[in-house]
């Protein structure tokens, strides 16, 4: 991985800075403020979708003043820089979600296939409520397939990495978010 001021090269592909860490911090604070208001007096289970969510979840939960626990699950639909469209696995739930207020936490929603699958699976759990918070949303690709209560930022249909999001497993530790050049 080679990095200069605003450009990054990773696995032979070039990326430009797209969303700075400063802007991300503002977005996270704004989301947390709303969640704190909406869930005041209630306990919430933050259901984080691994692996991409770890950085966002860590930052978001530290801004939340409500009572919360976390559940980390794994679902996968991506290969390289394109969504494969089919979810292959769902593992990791360690408690019953019955009657709980579940807030699914996602780093980015692209086609929405991953979440659609998760929402279907969660129906069996009979949670008290299920909402979604995502840092980023590729609005054009997603086409409002289902309601998303908390959206950090709507972005163009570009492949991005950094702040937890990867390109074939790399780049998750970058504090800023980068977008693939020439898309
Ligand atoms: P979806 O099922 O197409 O909505 O894809 C959802 C998952 O794919 C996200 O939770 C991410 O982990 C990953 N993903 C989607 N778009 C990107 C991207 O631009 N960069 C890195 N990962 C992405
Ligand atoms: Mg994800």
Query: What is the mean predicted local confidence, pLDDT?
Result: 92
**Topology pattern, helix = H, strand = E:** EEEHEHEEEEEHEHEEE
Biggest sheet, spatial arrangement of strands: 8-5-4-9-10-11
Bound molecules: inosinic acid, magnesium ion
Helix content: 10-25%
Question: How many angstroms separate the termini?
Answer: 20 Å
Structural class: alpha/beta
Strand content: 35-45%
Rg value: 16 Å
Low-confidence stretches: none
Characterize the structure shown.
The chain is an alpha/beta fold. The protein has 4 helices and 13 strands. A 6-stranded mixed beta sheet has the order 8-5-4-9-10-11, with helices on both faces. Helix 1 (21-38) packs across helix 2. The chain is globular. The mean pLDDT is 92. Inosinic acid is lined by residues 49, 52, 77-78, 83, 106-114, 159-161, 165-166.
